[in-house]
Amino acid sequence: MVVQSGNDAVNNANRYKSNRVGMCLQYVRTWLEIPAGNPSAIAAWNNAKRKHVNGRDKDAQSPPRGAPVFWGGGQYGHIALAVNNDYGRSTDTTRAGQVSTQKGDWWRQNWNKPYLGWTEDLNGVDIPYLRDGGASQWRAGVVYVTKLHRDQKNSDSVARLCYRLMHHTRIPKDKRPPVQVRGYGPKVQASVKYWQTQVRPKVPGPKDGKSLSNAQANALFGKNYDVREK
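The chain above was modelled as a monomer; its predicted structure follows.
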Protein backbone atom coordinates (compact mmCIF):
# COMPACT_ATOMS: atom_id res chain seq x y z
CA MET A 1 0.00 0.00 0.00
CA VAL A 2 1.23 3.47 -0.83
CA VAL A 3 2.92 5.35 2.01
CA GLN A 4 0.62 7.56 4.06
CA SER A 5 2.87 10.57 4.70
CA GLY A 6 5.70 12.53 3.16
CA ASN A 7 7.83 11.73 6.18
CA ASP A 8 7.41 7.99 5.54
CA ALA A 9 8.45 8.38 1.91
CA VAL A 10 11.53 10.45 2.78
CA ASN A 11 12.48 8.04 5.56
CA ASN A 12 12.30 5.19 3.04
CA ALA A 13 14.52 7.13 0.63
CA ASN A 14 17.06 7.98 3.32
CA ARG A 15 17.70 4.27 3.91
CA TYR A 16 19.22 4.00 0.43
CA LYS A 17 22.80 5.09 -0.18
CA SER A 18 23.42 3.32 -3.50
CA ASN A 19 21.38 2.26 -6.53
CA ARG A 20 21.36 0.37 -9.79
CA VAL A 21 22.32 2.86 -12.46
CA GLY A 22 19.53 4.36 -14.56
CA MET A 23 16.64 3.03 -12.46
CA CYS A 24 15.34 6.30 -10.99
CA LEU A 25 11.65 5.48 -11.44
CA GLN A 26 12.02 2.07 -9.82
CA TYR A 27 13.60 3.59 -6.72
CA VAL A 28 11.17 6.49 -6.30
CA ARG A 29 8.14 4.21 -6.67
CA THR A 30 9.74 1.83 -4.15
CA TRP A 31 10.18 4.68 -1.68
CA LEU A 32 6.53 5.56 -2.23
CA GLU A 33 5.55 1.85 -1.98
CA ILE A 34 3.86 1.97 -5.38
CA PRO A 35 3.84 -0.99 -7.84
CA ALA A 36 5.57 -0.95 -11.22
CA GLY A 37 3.72 0.63 -14.09
CA ASN A 38 5.35 3.06 -16.48
CA PRO A 39 8.58 2.11 -18.28
CA SER A 40 10.39 5.42 -17.66
CA ALA A 41 10.28 8.65 -15.71
CA ILE A 42 9.10 10.66 -18.73
CA ALA A 43 6.31 8.14 -19.37
CA ALA A 44 5.25 8.43 -15.72
CA TRP A 45 5.12 12.20 -16.09
CA ASN A 46 3.17 12.05 -19.35
CA ASN A 47 0.64 9.60 -17.92
CA ALA A 48 0.09 11.32 -14.57
CA LYS A 49 -3.42 12.65 -14.03
CA ARG A 50 -2.70 15.43 -11.55
CA LYS A 51 0.35 17.45 -12.53
CA HIS A 52 1.74 20.70 -11.18
CA VAL A 53 3.47 22.01 -14.28
CA ASN A 54 6.47 24.34 -14.16
CA GLY A 55 5.58 27.68 -15.73
CA ARG A 56 1.84 27.07 -15.43
CA ASP A 57 1.12 26.39 -11.75
CA LYS A 58 2.53 28.59 -9.01
CA ASP A 59 2.99 25.65 -6.65
CA ALA A 60 5.03 23.66 -9.19
CA GLN A 61 8.12 25.41 -7.81
CA SER A 62 7.48 24.18 -4.27
CA PRO A 63 6.82 20.42 -4.36
CA PRO A 64 5.59 19.08 -1.00
CA ARG A 65 7.65 16.65 1.05
CA GLY A 66 7.37 13.18 -0.43
CA ALA A 67 6.21 14.30 -3.89
CA PRO A 68 7.59 12.73 -7.09
CA VAL A 69 9.45 15.44 -9.01
CA PHE A 70 10.28 15.28 -12.72
CA TRP A 71 12.79 16.56 -15.27
CA GLY A 72 12.72 16.14 -19.04
CA GLY A 73 15.58 15.71 -21.47
CA GLY A 74 16.79 12.60 -23.22
CA GLN A 75 14.76 9.48 -23.91
CA TYR A 76 13.84 8.66 -20.33
CA GLY A 77 13.72 11.91 -18.33
CA HIS A 78 14.40 11.79 -14.60
CA ILE A 79 12.43 11.51 -11.35
CA ALA A 80 13.42 12.31 -7.75
CA LEU A 81 11.62 12.52 -4.42
CA ALA A 82 11.02 15.93 -2.85
CA VAL A 83 12.53 16.26 0.62
CA ASN A 84 11.28 19.81 1.13
CA ASN A 85 10.72 22.92 -0.98
CA ASP A 86 14.41 23.25 -1.83
CA TYR A 87 15.86 19.73 -1.90
CA GLY A 88 15.24 16.39 -3.58
CA ARG A 89 16.62 12.89 -3.06
CA SER A 90 17.68 11.04 -6.17
CA THR A 91 19.51 8.09 -7.64
CA ASP A 92 22.77 8.52 -9.59
CA THR A 93 23.44 11.80 -7.77
CA THR A 94 26.13 13.14 -7.61
CA ARG A 95 27.70 10.15 -9.34
CA ALA A 96 26.37 6.99 -10.98
CA GLY A 97 25.16 4.44 -8.47
CA GLN A 98 24.92 6.89 -5.57
CA VAL A 99 21.76 8.13 -3.83
CA SER A 100 22.00 11.61 -2.32
CA THR A 101 20.00 14.72 -1.49
CA GLN A 102 20.68 17.88 -3.51
CA LYS A 103 19.24 21.32 -4.16
CA GLY A 104 16.27 21.19 -6.47
CA ASP A 105 18.07 22.88 -9.36
CA TRP A 106 21.01 20.44 -9.30
CA TRP A 107 19.67 18.23 -12.10
CA ARG A 108 19.10 21.14 -14.46
CA GLN A 109 22.48 22.67 -13.73
CA ASN A 110 24.50 19.46 -13.87
CA TRP A 111 22.55 17.29 -16.30
CA ASN A 112 21.00 20.05 -18.41
CA LYS A 113 17.54 18.59 -17.82
CA PRO A 114 14.58 21.01 -17.85
CA TYR A 115 12.42 20.95 -14.74
CA LEU A 116 8.88 19.75 -15.53
CA GLY A 117 7.09 19.85 -12.16
CA TRP A 118 5.61 17.33 -9.72
CA THR A 119 2.58 15.06 -9.55
CA GLU A 120 0.01 13.90 -7.01
CA ASP A 121 -0.04 10.39 -8.51
CA LEU A 122 2.46 7.90 -9.90
CA ASN A 123 1.94 4.79 -12.05
CA GLY A 124 -1.82 5.27 -11.78
CA VAL A 125 -1.77 5.35 -7.96
CA ASP A 126 -2.98 8.41 -6.04
CA ILE A 127 -0.61 9.52 -3.27
CA PRO A 128 -2.99 10.36 -0.39
CA TYR A 129 -1.01 13.09 1.35
CA LEU A 130 -0.57 15.01 -1.93
CA ARG A 131 -4.27 15.55 -2.59
CA ASP A 132 -5.15 19.19 -3.22
CA GLY A 133 -1.54 20.06 -3.92
CA GLY A 134 -0.24 18.49 -0.73
CA ALA A 135 -2.29 20.77 1.47
CA SER A 136 -4.29 17.96 3.06
CA GLN A 137 -1.41 16.81 5.26
CA TRP A 138 -1.18 20.26 6.87
CA ARG A 139 -4.90 20.83 7.54
CA ALA A 140 -4.68 19.03 10.87
CA GLY A 141 -2.21 17.15 13.04
CA VAL A 142 0.26 17.64 15.85
CA VAL A 143 1.90 21.03 16.38
CA TYR A 144 4.82 21.43 18.80
CA VAL A 145 4.98 24.98 20.10
CA THR A 146 8.71 24.56 20.79
CA LYS A 147 9.19 24.31 17.00
CA LEU A 148 7.37 27.56 16.24
CA HIS A 149 10.22 30.03 16.23
CA ARG A 150 12.33 32.00 13.78
CA ASP A 151 14.98 29.98 11.89
CA GLN A 152 13.39 26.60 12.65
CA LYS A 153 13.95 24.46 9.55
CA ASN A 154 12.34 21.39 8.02
CA SER A 155 9.49 21.15 10.53
CA ASP A 156 6.00 19.70 10.13
CA SER A 157 4.84 22.07 12.88
CA VAL A 158 6.03 25.07 10.86
CA ALA A 159 4.39 23.65 7.74
CA ARG A 160 1.09 23.49 9.63
CA LEU A 161 1.64 27.03 10.87
CA CYS A 162 2.25 28.19 7.31
CA TYR A 163 -0.89 26.46 6.07
CA ARG A 164 -2.97 28.04 8.83
CA LEU A 165 -1.61 31.50 8.02
CA MET A 166 -2.16 31.03 4.27
CA HIS A 167 -5.81 30.15 4.83
CA HIS A 168 -6.68 32.53 7.68
CA THR A 169 -9.63 34.65 6.57
CA ARG A 170 -8.66 37.62 8.78
CA ILE A 171 -5.14 37.91 7.41
CA PRO A 172 -4.98 39.90 4.13
CA LYS A 173 -3.49 38.06 1.18
CA ASP A 174 -0.48 40.37 1.04
CA LYS A 175 0.29 39.51 4.68
CA ARG A 176 0.15 35.73 4.21
CA PRO A 177 3.14 33.51 3.34
CA PRO A 178 3.28 33.29 -0.48
CA VAL A 179 4.00 29.52 -0.64
CA GLN A 180 3.74 26.47 1.59
CA VAL A 181 7.05 26.09 3.47
CA ARG A 182 8.53 24.02 6.30
CA GLY A 183 11.01 26.66 7.47
CA TYR A 184 10.29 29.63 9.76
CA GLY A 185 11.78 32.48 7.74
CA PRO A 186 11.11 36.22 7.44
CA LYS A 187 7.85 35.88 5.49
CA VAL A 188 6.36 33.50 8.04
CA GLN A 189 7.57 35.80 10.82
CA ALA A 190 5.91 38.81 9.19
CA SER A 191 2.63 36.93 8.88
CA VAL A 192 2.76 35.73 12.50
CA LYS A 193 3.52 39.29 13.63
CA TYR A 194 0.47 40.58 11.75
CA TRP A 195 -1.73 37.95 13.44
CA GLN A 196 -0.23 38.76 16.86
CA THR A 197 -0.62 42.54 16.57
CA GLN A 198 -3.64 43.04 14.31
CA VAL A 199 -5.85 39.94 14.51
CA ARG A 200 -5.51 38.69 18.10
CA PRO A 201 -3.51 41.35 20.01
CA LYS A 202 -5.11 40.51 23.37
CA VAL A 203 -3.81 36.94 23.41
CA PRO A 204 -0.75 36.96 25.71
CA GLY A 205 2.59 36.27 24.08
CA PRO A 206 5.27 37.79 21.81
CA LYS A 207 4.35 40.55 19.37
CA ASP A 208 7.38 40.44 17.07
CA GLY A 209 6.43 37.32 15.11
CA LYS A 210 9.62 35.48 16.06
CA SER A 211 7.78 32.85 18.12
CA LEU A 212 4.40 31.99 19.60
CA SER A 213 3.27 31.41 23.18
CA ASN A 214 1.15 28.42 24.16
CA ALA A 215 -1.91 30.66 24.34
CA GLN A 216 -1.24 32.12 20.88
CA ALA A 217 -0.70 28.71 19.33
CA ASN A 218 -3.96 27.39 20.77
CA ALA A 219 -5.85 30.47 19.57
CA LEU A 220 -4.34 30.38 16.07
CA PHE A 221 -4.63 26.66 15.31
CA GLY A 222 -8.02 25.87 16.81
CA LYS A 223 -9.72 22.50 17.24
CA ASN A 224 -8.43 20.80 14.07
CA TYR A 225 -4.89 20.62 15.47
CA ASP A 226 -3.31 18.87 18.44
CA VAL A 227 -1.21 21.63 20.00
CA ARG A 228 1.57 20.31 22.25
CA GLU A 229 2.50 23.11 24.63
CA LYS A 230 6.07 23.93 25.60
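The chain is about 25% helix and 15% strand.
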